[in-house]
Amino acid sequence: MTTIMTSRHERPLVTFILFSYNQEEYISDAIDGALKQDYRPLQIIFSDDCSNDNTFSIIEKRLSSYNGSHSVTLNQTPKNLGLIGHINTVVKFAKGELLILAAGDDISSPIRTKEVVSAWLRHGKPAHATIHSDWLEFKHMNLGNDKHRKPKRKCKNINHYLKNWCQPFIHGATAAYTPDLFTDFPLLDESGLVEDTSLSFRSLLTRGEIIYIPKPLVHYRITAANISGRKNLKKPDEFKYWIHAASKYLDQNLNDYYYLLDREMVDKNLRLEKTLYSMKHRWKKQIKLLSPSFPDRCQAIVFSPIPNWIDRINYYGHLFGWRQHPIYKISSNAYRTGQSFITKVLRRLPRKGG
């Protein structure tokens, strides 16, 4: 691996990693986004997980003519490792003080690295940090018809995380991490489907920083191959896939907690243990939604891991196709309008002691 030295010693070295697998349709845009990063010094690793299409050859051809100032490395795994195995392997080659992860079907804004570094430095270069941002969402090849998306919830500490029933609070396509979230823990479980929920939980567990940047720094592509593309949940197989992902990240969270507890790096937290085990139990009950038995389906809804009833209705609207019904759309919009109005009124009311 070759590293280009820089005279700007005051700037931290950052590693930008672009992961790809069977993304020949989209990889050229992703490459452009990586190479156009306007931050120095930058190590860029292009790593392909043994694609069986032309993805690797497209990257190889494009990099053969690159003569820019970034340190560029091309890697291909000898066999397909899966997303988590791929990440575990490639982060070992990273030399930066921050790791920015990118997917081969997304497009990073040229200012992404610069904004991530600026936010990290403003917070005092914290250890065990997760940094995330807004994103622009588009479907397949419809770049230009983007929708500005923001995280649905914010989470600053472990208690807030537990209060929200361990719901994911960052979007992995926008995430960056400090390397100690990898080096201070065992390898991520390769049977898992996503990395962002586990890595951000490690930040909370170690009382690291969760840094949010209120700017869209990534064009996030919705396809049938990614997790977000599967969230219509209308098919039993897709629903099982999503349940599996949720169950695996809870397993990873428990393993990380006990790993630090054994080494006396965290205090025993009975509430954390109880909540994680309870969540695992509840997610397993969701498989009953696929049962032809009506009582089983009703029981699964009652024991849903989503605490808010309105959110539950929205969640199962995906599964049963209710969201396409005009009555559902009208009632949902009416609820959101009413909720927004009540929230504004409550904010204007005088507070006790204020």
CATH arch. level architecture of the largest domain: Alpha-Beta Complex
In the residues, how many domains can be counted?
Answer: 2
| CATH topology title of the largest domain | Spore Coat Polysaccharide Biosynthesis Protein SpsA, Chain A
Largest sheet: 9 strands, mixed
Give the topology, please:
Elements: E1 14-20, H1 27-35, E2 42-48, H2 55-64, E3 71-76, H3 82-90, E4 98-103, E5 107-108, H4 112-122, E6 130-139, E7 147-149, H5 158-163, E8 176-177, H6 180-183, H7 196-205, E9 210-222, H8 236-262, H9 270-285, H10 294-302, H11 309-320, H12 326-348
Parallel strand pairs: 1-2, 1-4, 2-3, 6-9
Antiparallel strand pairs: 4-8, 5-9, 6-7, 6-8
Report on this structure.
It is globular and about 60 Å long. It contains twelve helices and nine strands. It has 354 residues and is of the alpha/beta class. The chain folds into two domains: 14-229, Alpha-Beta Complex (Spore Coat Polysaccharide Biosynthesis Protein SpsA, Chain A); 236-320. Helix 2 (55-64) links the parallel strand 2 and strand 3 (71-76). Strands 1, 2, 3, 4, 5, 6, 7, 8 and 9 form a nine-stranded mixed β-sheet that branches. 34% of the residues are buried.
Give structural attributes.
nine-stranded mixed beta sheet, Spore Coat Polysaccharide Biosynthesis Protein SpsA, Chain A, alpha/beta, 354 residues, 2 domains
Brief account:
By secondary structure, the protein is an alpha/beta fold. Helices cover 41% and strands 16% of the residues.
